[in-house]
Amino acid sequence: MKSIELHEDNGLHTYLLVMETGDEAFSLITSFAEEQNITAATMTAIGACCRVTLGYFDPDFGDYREREFEEQLEIASCMGDIAMDDGKPALHAHIVLGRHDFSALAGHLQKIEVFPTMEVVITEVPAYLKKKLHRETGLTLIAPDKSRDGKTR
Fold first, then answer.
1. Handedness of CA 141, 142, 144, 150 (dihedral sign)
2. Nearby residues of 72 by Cβ (< 8 Å), 6 or more positions away
């Protein structure tokens, strides 16, 4: 993975991460956010992959059902956010993937092996986002909190 800072304004940064063949992008994005002390951000990505694990939250099951796909796929859309969970940045992303027959797969991104590239833009937002346990589902979800400037949003 290669990275560059594209923009900085008043302590908020925009980064470009370029993933390479074989990179496991989900963990690299999460590690990058931790290294840069990112507490709140949006994330978008495009590219392609050869292996991906998707999740689908099943309320009857009370957890994510996962499925791995091992085939060449185009990343048609990937978006998400980064928020603090138990003191560390946590990535939450959804992805739409195009197949060779022009059909699509979609779901909650769990893991993704890049082939040949994946371009990720991370944009910090002026807030401190924190996840809290949602008792009804057992998931940790973003709970509105105070921004970096102390104002409630």
1. positive
2. 48, 49, 50, 100, 115
Domain boundaries, the chain: 2-143
Q: What are φ and ψ of residue 18, in 5° steps?
A: -115, 110
Q: Does domain 2-143 have CATH number 3.30.1330.80?
A: yes
pLDDT in single tens digits along all 153 residues of the chain: 999 999 999 989 999 999 999 999 999 999 999 999 999 999 999 999 999 999 999 999 888 999 999 999 999 999 999 999 999 999 999 999 999 999 999 999 999 999 999 999 999 998 777 888 888 888 888 787 655 544 444
For residues 80 and 42, the answer to whether their CB atoms sit within 8 Å is yes
